[in-house]
Specification:
Elements: E1 3-7, H1 11-23, E2 27-31, H2 34-43, E3 48-52, H3 60-70, E4 75-80, H4 85-93, E5 98-101, H5 106-129, H6 146-158, E6 165-168, H7 175-184, E7 193-197, H8 203-211, E8 212-213, E9 225-226, H9 228-231, E10 236-240, H10 247-259, E11 261-262, E12 271-272, E13 276-281, H11 285-290, H12 296-302, E14 305-308, H13 317-334, E15 340-341, H14 343-351, H15 357-371, E16 376-377, H16 384-394, H17 398-406, H18 416-425, H19 440-458, H20 463-469, H21 474-483
Helix pairs in contact: 2-3, 13-15, 14-16
Bound molecules: adenosine-5'-triphosphate (ATP) and magnesium ion.
Length: 492
């Protein structure tokens, strides 16, 4: 049964809208302002939200953005007075499905809600019967390289079984797409695909996020909440950034996975679920196990079937098709008509090492869309992080850069042009490549360590300042300091 949230500060309107929907067999909850609506959406699960525009605390538009950020699949219909129609139109650009003008007529309301929810079903069905790697959120899973073709065939096989899968790969390589592809090609596809982003949830809320809680289970638990384990029953639970969960939560998760049972906080009854678990991480779990940060037994429980996504620089064959795909996507989004990428810009795009992988490529193409006024993406529309490759080319240093990419340790450090490129890639002057140790990971860690120590020194050990100026999320900074056993107090 579909569940709807009606949000309006006008109690009479809330009541009349809610009863019209209840009579039509929808489950209805109410919220009296934007803030309450966001809290409810975060705590419960709704297929559709009816949202007033002018409300105290958060406006409808602000609430809409929060709701869509929390779960883009929630349909939002705006309720608006005629005088606010322009806001309602703006809301449709922010992802609202449609709007209804006040006074609300019950038959219009029910008609639009029925239509929207039918469409939600249809979109799902259509995409599910479409070619294998079309995902229900409209994303296509692209790849023509041998590496990606192999991944596609692995996904095809693994989607037919129910065993846990652990997806590994650098940030931006498409781990979440793999998880979705596994679900939407599996026999569980008509049930839910539910994500828990383990790094985004504060430690004190994570257990409730996983397993739910009873009303009054702890301070702030003013209503009962279903955990994602239960919500995903019958479907797939995607544990994203699994390397970031605390050791306490690792124990509880392991037990729930082993026994397929769990106890919501404050409850005395165990719940049983039928789930497929897919987890993802860009962290080195083996190393974390060695350092006792990650439980080995949990690792083996999750890592039954591993999928390793190669970074984009190791599947350069995909760059062109992906770039074209993003151009088509942004042509639609920005109502533009970019038709091609100049040969020179494409050369630079292929030369770049894409540390941020596909997400970085997508951002670069979007950046070009924003600034380009001609029908072509040219060098001048690329961000500086890439455009410098073309300047380097003009200076004749590009060959060294290519060599550096293939085998940095072959280039003699005394070659001036190589040094110049090293400086371009790595602005931290203090870092020296350990050329005797042919190990990417070790060198990367050494760089990170020295970078963090210099940044802490500069900002006198102040974490917030360091995070801000070094452009590193605070959480990541703290994690890395812990990893390298660097004590910020030493820099006060
Ligand atoms: N093969 C692909 N085809 C089309 N789009 C892709 C592909 N791979 C990744 N993307 C897009 O790139 C972006 C990053 O992908 P995704 O979020 O799945 O990466 P991730 O590996 O989960 O990264 P992180 O570790 O940072 O969470 C998304 O917008 C995704 O849609
Ligand atoms: Mg991800």
């Amino acid at each position: 049964m579909f569940k709807i949230l009606v949000v309006d500060d006008d109690a009479d309107l809330r009541l009349s809208v809610s009863s019209a929907l209840s009579e039509n067999h929808y489950l209805v909850d109410q919220a009296k302002d934007g803030e309450e609506s966001i809290n409810r959406v975060r705590a419960g699960y709704y297929d559709l939200v009816l949202l007033d525009v002018n409300m105290p605390k958060f406006s409808g538009i602000e609430a809409l953005k929060e709701i869509k950020a929390h779960d883009p699949s929630i349909i939002v219909i705006i309720l608006t007075a005629f005088s606010n129609i322009r806001d309602a139109v703006a809301a449709t650009k922010e992802g609202a499905y449609n709007y209804l003008e006040k006074p609300i007529k019950a038959e219009n309301l029910v008609y639009l809600v029925d239509k929207a929810l039918r469409a939600k079903h249809m979109i799902r069905d259509m995409t599910l019967s479409a070619p294998v790697f079309k995902l229900p959120n409209g994303t296509d899973f692209i790849g023509q390289s041998t590496e990606m073709k192999r991944i596609f065939s692995v996904i095809d096989k693994l989607s037919r079984v129910d065993t846990a899968v652990l997806i590994r790969g650098e940030s931006g390589t498409g781990k979440e797409l793999v998880a979705q592809a596994l679900h939407f090609n599996s026999p569980r596809k008509d049930n839910r695909f539910v994500t828990i982003n383990c790094s985004a949830i504060p430690e004190n809320l994570i257990e409730s996020e996983f397993f739910g809680h009873e009303k009054g289970a702890f301070t702030g638990a003013d209503s009962r909440k279903i955990g994602k384990f239960q919500y995903a029953d019958g479907g797939t639970l995607f544990l994203d950034e699994i390397g970031d969960i605390s050791s306490g939560m690792q124990v509880k998760l392991l037990r729930a996975l082993q026994e397929k049972k769990f106890t919501p906080i404050g409850s005395n009854r165990e719940a049983e679920v039928n789930l497929r678990i897919v987890a993802a991480t860009n962290r080195n779990l083996e190393e974390m196990i060695r350092k006792n940060y990650f439980r080995e037994d949990l690792f083996y429980r999750l890592n039954v079937l591993p999928i390793q996504l190669p970074p984009l620089r190791e599947r350069k064959n995909d760059i062109e098709v992906l770039a074209k795909y993003f151009i088509e996507k942004f042509n639609q989004q920005y109502h533009k008509n970019i038709t091609h990428i100049s040969i020179e810009a494409m050369e630079v795009i292929k030369l770049h090492s894409w540390p941020g992988n596909i997400r970085e490529l997508e951002n670069v193409i979007e950046h070009a869309f924003v600034i380009e006024t001609t029908p072509a993406i040219t060098i001048s529309s690329l961000p500086d992080s890439l455009a410098h490759l073309s300047r380097a080319k003009a200076k004749g240093t590009i060959l060294n850069f290519e060599r550096l990419q293939v085998d940095p340790f072959k280039s003699s450090t005394s070659s001036p042009s190589t040094l110049q490129m090293n400086a371009a890639i790595n602005p931290s002057a203090g870092f020296k490549l350990d050329i005797n140790r042919l190990d990417f990971q070790a060198n990367k860690e050494e760089f990170e360590k020295q970078f963090l120590m210099s940044a802490l020194k500069k900002f006198k050990g102040r974490i917030n300042q360091t995070a801000l100026h070094a452009n590193i999320p605070k959480k990541t900074l703290l994690r890395k300091l812990e990893k390298y056993r660097i004590n910020a107090r030493d820099y006060f």
